[in-house]
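Bench log. Compound arrived from synthesis this morning; before running ITC I wanted a structural hypothesis for how zinc ion sits in the protein. Inputs:
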Amino acid sequence: MGTALIYDEEMTSYKLLWDDPECEVEVPERLTVSYEALVRSGLADHCVSIPVREATEEEILLIHSEEYLEKVKKTPHMSVQELKDFALQFNAVYFHPNSYHCAKLAVGAALQLVDHVLMGKVRNGMALVRPPGHHSMRDAACGFCTFNNVAIAAQYAKQKYGLKRVLIVDWDIHHGQGVQYCFEDDPSVLYFSWHRYEHSIFWPHLPESDYDAVGKDKGVGFNINVPWNKVGMTNSDFLSVFCHVLLPVAYEFCPELVLVSAGYDSGIGDPEGEMCATPDIFAHLTHLLMNLAGGKVCAVLEGGYNLTSLSQSVCQTVQTLLGDPNPRPENLRSPCQSALESIHCVRWAHRRYWSCLGHAADLSSFQISTKPSGSPKEAGESTWKDKVAVVWPEPVKRVAPPVRTAALLSDEAVCPEGCKRLATSDKLDPRVAGKLRENFLEGEGDSEALSALSGLITLTEKMEKDEILNGLAVVRDITMATACVVQHVTMAPNNRVLVVCVGDGEAPSNITEDRKALVVRIGSRETKQSKCKNDIPVCLKKGCADVSGVIQAVFGLLLPLGYEFDPSLVLLVRMPGSEVSDGVWQQLTGLLQCLAQGHVLVLIQECEKSCVSPTACSLLGEPAPPLGQLQAPLPQDVEDMERLRRKLLADWTLLQTTAADTGKRQEL
Ligand SMILES: [Zn+2]
């Protein structure tokens, strides 16, 4: 199952024909540079190329009115003056004699992508299109958009394939008000948008772009707006919104298809967005969506006006869709006050609609700002040229190791298809062997145990050298194996290990003392938090069999902790008798690959061999199966997790969900 790439040079065949400072950033080169970057990097070669087609009138009418379509149909025959006059009816739009043709291709490209993904011909994909779509409304063009490509795609997927739940993630820096208007009363489409807002100072200046526009009638709760009230938002701000707003809600919703309104004006250097998120963040945003809907993710280009930032970000997205390992997240620090305020407001506004947000903090005791802070900008103070003159390092080339998944198994076990079997090692450096004996085998000469541990060490070393991306090992003594890996890996000065223990059982003690390991234990056993701050027990009343509880812990605690800790290796440890379902286990295995450049090592005890095959699938990059619409987590668990989160705030800034949390951090 591959990744589709849809592009046609034909969509560069229209441009602005008169002077209009508002529209001059929307140029044909946006498409050509993006596509050329994909070709140059070799990514285009790895994609399945799918031809575009023109959308039919019937398809356009899924969202737009006949009257509007008839008007646009006349544009190919208009003079420049007539086009100019026609465009003036709308907000921030221009037309060209080829606009109509290209707009039909843009819709058709989105529909081709949806068809190929939903028919199972490809797993996921991206459509590079012009004109963009998310501002366009039933009766009107708006903001460079003619037809609403993604809204039509959502409606088409519902109608043609009978889908009941579609998620639209709009990470463009403008509010896709057109999409919101289409689906605000429709509970089958969950629309999420973050956008530069600055308390409505920023275009399109709509009150309904604010956090309290949550949808209407039956669709109440299915429209999520995260307004950015300041410019300069960073990777941390974006990730925090994903972990604390979008992902828990998306998992509760359980979409059958994810459409991304993939605008890159939210990236650094963009003259429209003026944000500071670097191109690599789009690898993470993409990855975090790829275990939803069985991996059916369709990204459709919207905005993006800094050609360098745009093309780099498009490459990051496509490379992640292809399944290549993510870069280590860069520059993560505390989300800013303004972002936290927005997160707080959105969580509060939606807490009555989504059980995962049911515990969100009150707004009443909190003074929210209603005006942009800082002095208002003088008009013309910073020019378009200043805004795009920002520089940032080129993203590091992401190279996939030659072997994706290695397996360390007993001789009689069958190696899962696609994995490379590693032999347990007999030829061991005598010094390492001596150390292993001394530390773990109490001097006894059990050669079988010794060669199993040395096999593990060989595996971690190959991962460190990027010869192998990830791996799984079936071990006899999981506590000893965990301790052995952590001890060996953390000997190197810059290494850090995130240990995720699933289920109760004897987790190794004393491995976190030098803080180069962070242990998060998810289980049912009430354990006192050890004195070491890096040993974090998350207790769920029903243990890991409780799907909603585990998912709540993953987004509220585990992923933010993981991102902030930024490990070089993730060790996922399945304790015997954990009762975790295959589905949840695969979600965990899939999601954790966003960390440590995808270096995830899974340890499984011999008695749990049945999970080897689903584990291997996830490590090989197969999306996890959907978990179904989630029930509310147990109130007691939520309360306990919230207490734990507050306790951890002093050390972990990405756990913040309100601006008030920063105050708490300072008090501590
Ligand atoms: Zn935009």
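What the model suggests: The pocket of zinc ion is lined by residues 172-174, 263, 265, 272, 302-303 (CB under 6 Å). Residues 374-380 have pLDDT under 50 and may be disordered.
ITC booked for Thursday regardless.
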